[in-house]
Amino acid sequence: MKKVSVIVPVYNTEKYLRRCLNSLVNQTLKDLEIIIIEDKSPDNSNEILKEYKEKYKDKIKVFHNKTNKGIGYNRNYGIKKATGKYIAFVDSDDWVDETAYEKMYNRAIKDNLDLVLCNFHKMLEKDDFLNEIEPEFIIPNFKNTSLKEYPDLLLKVNLAPWNKLYKRELLDDNNFPEDLKYEDAIVVVKALSRANRIGMIDEKLNYYLVRDKSETTVMDKRVYDILKITQMIIEELKIHDYYKDIKKYVEAMTIRNLFRYTLQQKNQKDKNIANDFIDKVFDYLNKEFPNWKKNEIWKKRNPIKRFIEENKLLTKIYCYLF
Questions:
Q1: What is the pLDDT of residues 150-179, one digit of tens each?
Q2: Which of 119, 122, 232, 267 could form a disulfide with 135 if both were Cys (CB 3.0 to 4.6 A apart)?
Q3: pTM of the entire structure?
Q4: Which residue in 160, 93, 145, 156 sits closest to 115, CA to CA?
Q5: What percent of the residues of the chain are helix, what percent strand, and what percent coil, each to the nearest 5?
Q6: What is the β-pairing status of strands 95-96 and 129-133?
Q7: How far apart are CA 222 and CA 219, in angstroms?
Q8: 201-241, pLDDT tens digit by residue?
Q9: Got the DSSP string for 63-77?
């Protein structure tokens, strides 16, 4: 059994792939395997993978899909093939600090942690230039804890899988949905809710790339999937005996996350979809959390932003004008 397995789905990222792979093969943690799932990529990614697989036979395993399967399938397949005690995920256009997995693994072993988090650099690519920008989430440093002890994690932790190290048991019966967008959020929440001990390394060890026209910047009808993922998250949290104690945090997280996507409808090309989605978000909140406007955590938000966000008509006007 390896100490860490790093799972890397690859699709159409030849421009960035060498940087990603170099950051992994040069990790200071030597007992590490790199599991790559090549998702029928139409570019030259496969040629690059052949080169690295030949050069780093003891570190890299490459699996090829016969048809394009999507990132959820690829991550699930990678988990099945991984032998590591701990598992990490990297997107093939991102990269990591060369000390990342040694630091995270050592911390996990030293403190008997199920889940280790770190902070990250958010890099914006524009016209082939990279600029670091402020991430939406800067995870505050915290002592080893659990979600039951520190429910504020629901609001402080980004719901992406890549700046985390998971004890592999956290991913048992915790699959990425393969037919939905935003599939990583439910997996991260399940890991947070099921981990007995969660720790933090207060360093930026990941580099997260934001590209023009990437999955994270394009808006289309798949935005409706966030409502399905949100329901899955709430159903997961409700099964725990401490749900009543953390409900206000769950509610505040739901409000914030959904309103993030209502405001993003300004980028939606189809304004009928934009208007309908905004309607459905408000309907969902009113049904799931009838008193959501009174949530004490939500009420701490900037009053001007909150005034716009919690008003359906103003949200639609904002999306139309901007």
A1: 999 999 999 999 999 999 999 999 999 999
A2: 122
A3: 0.94
A4: 145
A5: 45, 20, 35
A6: unpaired
A7: 8
A8: 999 999 999 986 554 445 789 999 999 999 999 999 999 99
A9: EE-SS---HHHHHHH
